[in-house]
Design goal:
six-stranded mixed beta sheet; elongated; disordered C terminus
Length: 104
Amino acid sequence: SKEGRVTVKLPEIAENGRTVPITISVDSPMTDSDYVKSIHVVAERNPTPEVISINMTPAMGKAEVSTRMRLGETQNVRAAAIMSDGSVYTGTKQVKVTIGGCGG
């Protein structure tokens, strides 16, 4: 896999690890010949690291998804985009999780 083309948007600090907003976008023309087949999100230090997998088609028009996720502690969140030609691109963002607004 290669770094790049994948942007992971998360708050720098998540005061409530139960519901953290995340947006993943991939630089892709989303045409029939060049599109994102799927996006996989992993939170490395969660008890179950696999957060979500999204399958995509060119009909979606743009490769961007937003959701909310649960984070148990400060960690890196990694997204991998599988492209239609089989190549894989990744992006990573670190999130600091504070418990109840106190240090963590």
